[in-house]
Design goal:
250 residues, 20% strand, two-stranded antiparallel sheet, 36% helix
Amino acid sequence: KSSATVVTLLNKLDGEVQELPFHVTFDNLFTSLDLLLYLKQRGWNATGTIRANRLPRTCPLKTPDVMRKEERGAMSMVEVTAGADRIFIVRWKDNNIVTTASTVYGSEPVKPVSRYNRTLKDRVGVPSPKSIREYNSSMGGTDRQDQNVNAYRTGIRGKKWWFPVFTWLLDVSLQNAHYLGRQSGATGAVTLLDFRRAVAMYWLEHHGTPPKAGGRPTNIVNVPAAGELRYDRLDHLIRPGQQARRCRGE
């Protein structure tokens, strides 16, 4: 099971380090209620996103179908008890439906987070639960990379099996370059979307080629203006020929 990976990595810590009150954060690939209870019994708190099929069917949490009909920022929380241990399960509607499970964080206190509103065309405050904010603050590395790549994934499709791998490598390279630029201060506060646009514009301006005009190519280099043809006294009248009509005054 994927939960065993978390336990194996934690067991590799030194004995004295394992006695520290860790707070472990992981994504929905590893999260399960059994793992959270096991870590809690060892003295560690944990928070992670959790998949819907890993929750008990009797869980009174609002279903994702019900949450999609509600406004952005809607949330639902359930507290699961196992003896003296508690697990807080929170479901929140953002751009998508997100569900977290934590042994320490619930929905309170609720605080607003900045999100872009397409209707108002401006950033507005959206209420968010405590578990979501703590999870986002602890997210890093691969999880943050996946989130950024999925936000602006290349939408060009190809028939070759390797093409999705190729576009994914480009997206990851742009995300890493943007991250390194912000860490070093080279890109300032430029967003990932603006950074991708700047890279695309640079390559188009320096290495792009204009599209070729449609239709048959012409051999005429210099074509005189219509006014010049009318008054050059050569009587440009069409006369029949063997292959095509030609100008009489050619």
